[in-house]
Amino acid sequence: MDPSFSEEDFKACCGSTKFASEMAKGCPFSSLSQAVDLSREIWFNKVDVPGYLEAFAAHPQIGDVKSLNNKSASSTEWCKGEQSAALSTATDSTLKELVDWNHKYKEKFGFIFLICASGRSTPEILDALKNRFGNRPIVELEIAVGEQQKIIELRLAKLFTEKGRVSQIVTAANEAAPVESTDRRLSQIGGHLISSAGGLENVPLHSSSRSRPPITTHVLDVSRGKPGAGIKVLLESWKGSSAVPDTLPGLRDATGWALLGSSTTDDDGRCGSLMPVLDHVPAGIYRISFNTGEYYMKMGADIPGNETKGGFYPYVSIVFEIKSFQTLEHFHVPVLLSPFSFTTYRGS
Question: Is 332 marked active-site?
Fold first, then answer.
């Protein structure tokens, strides 16, 4: 490996562990141009959706430099520089509006608004955020992936400069990123989503008109009169060999369940995305599970009469079936929870 660069250097360029590891393996580089070419190959073709989300999460929200929480000093300074134009053109009102829209965006898409902010004013960034807010999630993910690559290339150039590799930068100066077909990129990212979703075969992920996944949940803690925040949630589908008649034999066999996704309820008791956004949810048997025991262990001291400090249910699982004629519907599973009971009903 080139002694000039470390894996941490590449992690500062992009928060994806996979990206940093693969870039480190590609050393040494004869020029910045070679490093940029490899970065595109890795980012677009080797990093999957969890890796994209890991990279996005390493960024602070635009306009909120105080939220920087990256261990890399280089990344912190680079980010401040990239947002300098935005911060210098911001007013109290535009910053507040930016914070509000950032919150709406993350609530809708599940990740922060990402844009290559270098040289952009706050009004420009706000306009871009508002325009992109109406996108379908798969399209917005594609755009965010492209914006991250722009940031990667800017930071690679800064990295080469800081490491004294200026002579190797000339060949890559102002080199434009190759233009890829949008359909091809959507297909690639859709493929990553299918792989991450635990077997949603043959689902046209890039054609959805929905703005949220077809299966959602919301937990209210009736013992405290508050949303159930911080509860771990799993969504699974039945993939066992049995036909699953009305009596549901074999569902106790853990090996028959395929994990679709997991998340944790937010401060409002709502769960993040448990599966991709898609038009037709596959018909079949599903199970949604809540780690209620862990939740009440944390809440224990605040719950009168909860001597066990874990509640009666160590976890709650709800099994439901989606029929073939219901694949276009939205299924919401609200849960009313207390340490010794729970209630659920079919929401719309």
Answer: no
